[in-house]
Amino acid sequence: MSSSLNNELEKRIISVAVALPLFLLLILLHPLSFIAVFIFLSGVSMIELARMYFSKQEQIVAIGLSLALLGWFYFSWWFLEQSFPFLGWYLGFLILIVWIITQPQIPLEKMVFLFTGWWFCIIFPFFWVKTGFLSGRKTVIFLAFLVWLNDIFAYFLGKKWGRHKVVPNISPGKSWEGLLGGLIIAAFFGGVFANFNLIPFSPFLGFLCGFLLGLVGFLGDIFESSLKRRVKLKDSGNFLPGHGGVLDRFDSFFTVGPLVFILGTMWGG
Hints:
Blueprint: H1 3-29, H2 31-53, H3 56-79, H4 84-102, H5 108-135, H6 137-161, H7 176-195, H8 203-230, H9 246-255, H10 257-267
Helix pairs in contact: 1-2, 2-3, 2-5, 3-4, 5-6, 5-9, 5-10, 6-7, 6-8, 7-8, 8-9, 8-10
């Protein structure tokens, strides 16, 4: 292994050693700290997305509007009626239309990108919060472990044995060998976690859950890679040394949020 790879691996290990215990502590500490974690992740990831696609002047509006919507979404969900969060999204969409009309020099693609980012970085992670209140915050942790186990083993198995690339034009490092290995590990531990009642499924459904989370998480990883490829960036940011930005680390995690909630609602016991 080359010196550069050793340095990258060392940075990854240090980042995980520092960030993971803090993440787990805040998830378990209190419902408000649990919510705060996801507000933070959504906010930072939206800032990263805006910096990827918008000029510095445009970022003021894009980031300001995104953070306002994020704040309104959680505030209205916690304190007001269920319909109020979506009123905020409707108003945000109307503001976006006004921005398009008044700033015709800004490509429409950027506006579509921003609207997509609201779903990917705010709505999708919110379903993890919903799952925490539905099935418990410990369930969130073990389901998150399945996503990360898939990511970790897909990365290392792909580095070691990866020969056949999945989407070389988008993410040259992703291989079929790594993908398959990650899915097998996630499925196996899904069954194990379910067998020990760490997630609210039967062992078979836990196995299937791990497989589905790994597969959908992979799609989210590829989606985020395609966004970076369009603007010729390697990382979305530098928040986590060795990992890049929040989006680089949590792309799969965000993508499976709605799936986690759906599976918990359908299969949870």
